[in-house]
Predict the 3D structure of the following.
Amino acid sequence: MYEGVSFIPLTWTDMLYLAPELALAAVFLLLVLLDLVMPGRVSRLSIGWLTLLGLLISLGLVLWRMLDMNRAGEAAETIELLANSYRIDDFASLLKIVFLTGTALTVLLALGSVRDDDAITEKGEFFYLLLPAVMGAMMMASSGNLVTLYIGLELLSLTSYVLVGMRRRSALSAEAAFKYVVTGGISSAFVLFGMSYIYGVTGSVDLTVIYSALPGALADFKALVYVGFFMMLAGFGMKIAAAPFHAWAPDVYQGAPTPVSAFLAVIAKGAALAVVFRMMFGAVYFARTDMEPDVSNDIFLALLAMSAAAMLVGTTAALRQKNVKRLLALSGVANSGYMLVPIGISITAVHSSSFSEFVYYLIAYLLMTIGAFAVLTAVSRAAGHDELKGFAGMYYRAPWTAAAMVIFVLSLAGLPVTGGFFGKLFILLGAANAKAYWLVAVIVVSSVISYYFYFGLVRQMFMRVGGTEQSIPVSPATGIVIWLCAIATVALGLFPGPLMSWIDAVFSLGQDLMFVVY
Amino acid sequence: MSILQDIPILSLILLSPLAGLLVVLLLPKHRSGWMKTAAVTATLVPLALSLWLYADYDKQQGGAAFEEKLNWVDVPLNKELQDISEFVFKFQYTLGVDGLSLPLLLLTTLVTAMAALAAVHVKKRWKSFFVWFLLLETGMLGVFLARDVFLFFVFFEITLIATYFLIGIWGYFNRERAANQFLIYNGIGSAIMLLAFVLLVNTAGFRIDQAGEQTSFIYSGSYTDIFRNMADPTAWVNLSPDQMGAVNPFQMTDTMQWVLFILLLIAFGIKLPVFPFHTWMLKVHTEAPPSVVMIHSGILLKMGAYGLLRFGVLLFPEQARDWAVVLAVLGVINILYGALLAFRQQEFKLVLAYSSISHMGIVLLGLAAFNEIGLQGALFQLVSHGLISALLFLIVGSLFERTGTTELSELGGLARSMPFMSGVLLTAGLASLGLPGLSGFVGEFLAFLGLFESMRWLTALGVLGVILTAVYVLRAVLKITFGTQPERFGALKDARLVEAVPMIVLLAFILLLGCYPSVLTDTVQYSIGGLFEQLLATRAGG
């Protein structure tokens, strides 16, 4: 009855494997205490810098572990902690690097913009709460077990509810936080509900056991398996903000402090996508090779339908949007659609690069989205609002920042020579490889629609004249974020080879995801 | 062996405008004079290089000697099968020229250099104007040089982005709408093109290399690879599944070929533009600044025809042959529609815009003829119309600068105050209506001659367009140059030196092509000699 639950104690060696997460937890606790004892007149930005330091330490530890695991000529061995409930594999490590980098950029962005934001009263809290949030995301990427997965999900969600409501003196922020709590709670409930069904029919919460028990469960409880997976997909769909579960995103992004919007758009979304990826390939994919191929095909098809809906709904809804934060939220909806494509298309003899496509696009998306949000913080502080017309005449007011924004816009629209172009191209080629031609058509159509509103930003910046000629001040930290993202976006657009080769070198679908040892 | 084959001449041509762009970027903002000099110089370098290349081009040997290849990106795809040693995506920086692209390359460098001279009229934001302008030139050169479908696409998109900025910032009153419409129409076109390329690489671009024990799966965007695979009936992609003994996932089925051909036809048809997709181009012609319209009408439209020829007709000759009638009908519609509407316009720029539609129809006829003469006619028409329309829009820009209007009803009698410019306008008009001795005649003649072999009635209909052309061109040109001159135009100055030079140069080339068409036709001929017969023969053998 309790096959999936075994009580294996955590040893000191295991603790060493968990070093990146534990480092985050330690820094978090230290900062909580520091915030408490530090006199009120000391600037809380120092806490921000320490948060950044903590993230970089954790990033270093992940990299060190990964290099250690992938020594030259040696195949990476997956480390399973606590009866496979926590997996240290290349899938998780690659995503952790992405999440930690993204969070570090977010903190840097916040360092540049939070100081002058009077609506945020607890500036120290604002920074250190990002640590448990990203820790949750990392747990989600590493989880090999539905319970660990849920704990990670909740850790991420609960802290982000608080973060969204951080602008205490702003009514919009409170509204956003409330909406996010309610929709987030519902989505967690959906996930949990689905999990309970899966546990019920397979008798386990361990993904490996679920995968081997699924064929048997399908024979007796086909309907329940459907319900279980569809409920989970719906719940994760909300976290990902994929249509038709996306309606909360514009409101929440608009009310949240801009760095938090960036965090939600990239890290929270990426973590939920990672979980779906692992679940689909770890548990569902193999059910298709066995006796019931229909069921797994249906589940994959549902995922693809969600992806197509997200692309089309996201882009068409953004057409009439005049608020840049809402626009970026809807662009994020469309982008989750693009990222769901490699997760949903099948693996064949001539197509098995789903993960490379996914991670490449995620990295390109991270850079262009955080970059765009960074430009937005500078612009909206000068304008006093987040509306599109705040960008008017930016060519005259901040020509270099406008140039960087052009790079982000091109990347978001999937035009060369940017990371977004190659990211989208790889996804397109993958979908065509798998002969999902209808999906290829949807991707192309939604990209064309998106040109209109992305170039709306360009129109404002270069073709309109703003109410004022005053230059837009860009704080050094924000400037660093903008240019790091812009340079990396162009670099990915010119030389996509090295990154793809590296992902290919460390990652193997069979070993890291499907629990198959060759 | 010439020195050109030892240096990467194609890359030099491609990159010289980029070098100019960097120089312009580094110059101080207020030094507009320096910037203009730098920009014009930056366009003269590729012009000189491409003239040298044209002179040195060995017609028999073709452009093989100049081909440049560099592995741009090898993207490994995770291989999960143990028996494959390599599974990669190859994007190559491959440049090449042949008789089809070389004339268009020269046209690009020539018209761009002349447009750069005309761009000294630009009144604001010189620096970014020339940055986008030079980027546009790089994109156009890349389109004609690229021999990898994705490289082609990248350059194609660069021209799209650069043109969008050039229209939207430096255009006339309705510039934003024109820029938007341009972006959306061409965005749709290039998205369809990308779709076609992705499918093409997935099918015809796939190959399996077997070297001893090593098996490599390779997706390649290389045009040569795709062309070879398509033309070779024993290539892996062309075998039916049963011949392979197992499921062949990327077979180039008939349906797939038709889908690809139609997608490419639409994609490049929008750019060309083919009749129902032409509205965006009217706006661009009226709203864009003169130097950009020169490039747009002179070169950008030609990219559509070039793409249709290179990817549509040459990769899918059977489909193109089967649809030759469709192409011819579309061409005739373009010719007659353009000519009739040009006759009705009161705005000189619109007359010229509709005239462009009409003239591009002749290119379609040349392609539809599906023989050497027709193809030569099509290419000749491309180059000739590029020169003529660039010249006409150059004059329009100068006229507008002086008179402040391009309405036919307000203009008149300008020959009295501006004899030189009126003379050039008249000659350009005559070239446009196809007067023998000027370049327009040769292209039209060859295209109609080519088509006459296979579709007499359609040819006859198309020739009607030539008569209409004479009517609308003369109506507009005579109205502007002769008749009574409004008093306010009495004191207008004739062309300055900086305007006269590009006019004379373009006119000289129009005359040269009109009198010695073999300058161009010889280059083209060796590249296309027996091309169609070969193409179809190999297919028939399979």
Summary: Residues 47 and 110 of chain B are 6 Å apart (CA to CA).
